[in-house]
Amino acid sequence: MASLKQNANEMLEEGSNAVINVVNLDSKYKLVRRGVAGDGSCFFHALFSDICGKTYFNLNSDDKKNVIQQLRDRIVAKLDSVEKFIKLANGALVYVLSTQLINKLLLDFVNTNDKYKTKIDSLKTKILSCIADATKYEELVDKNFTEDNRKIKDLITTLIERAFEKYKLNLTNPSSHIGDEHISLIHNYLKVNILFITPKGRLYIRDKEVDCKANGLPFILMYYVNNNHYEPIFRKENNDTYNGFFNEKDEMISQILKTC
Description:
By secondary structure, this protein is of the alpha+beta class. It folds into two domains: about 15-75 and about 180-255, Cathepsin B, Chain A (Alpha-Beta Complex), CATH 3.90.70; about 80-170, no CATH class. It has helices at about 40-50, 55, 60-80, 80-85, 90-110, 120-130, 135-145, 150-170, 180-190, 210, 250-255; strands at about 15-20, 30-35, 195, 205, 220-225, 230-235, 240-245. Strands 1, 2, 3, 4, 5, 6 and 7 form a seven-stranded mixed β-sheet that branches. A hairpin with a 5-residue loop joins strand 3 (about 195) and strand 4. Helix 5 packs antiparallel against helix 6 (about 120-130) and helix 5 (about 90-110) crosses helix 8 (about 150-170). The two termini are about 30 Å apart.
């Protein structure tokens, strides 16, 4: 696996490699990132590369697509209820997706509830505040609304259901980018921790309580470039082999976690 110098802020061509540096990591550790296809499934290309190495590298393009699609479908199949969806990221995920979907629902709602037509902005703010923690939105509706509570709850229920469907569609779409909103679900399904390294050699931290702790699960490393592309990271071992899958007690992993 020959390594070349490369602009740290640029994604690599598929199959090419570049040395990377991690802040405060002992120089004895030699890390290399590897280019993967930027086809919307780069996260999964990086994931399988880290875990399976040459077994995955040697697959042809169609076989890689099939393996990734099977995993996408299996992960979605595990998320088989709105209740499970609401619990993702402690309810915060519902809020993120709901902000993208709420406007159309609100317009439909005020068209059948005239008294809100002049209050649509404040209504939107109050509804979003109720789903900031979607795990207890019914309780928050009762706290923030003095009338039409049932209607508001029904609106929020519909909003959450639509967010759930959008989430599943995005995850199964082979060209859909994997973002922060999907990482926790994938982590829980595969039972593996993922540490993301930025071009500046620092950890990209989504949630310090989750990303910065050893929890008995193995670790893999990914290079996160331009906020939209992932590449696998490997460590060159003393016998000139490359490893992308690490025990939680690995000394290098311990050093990286200390930079959180």
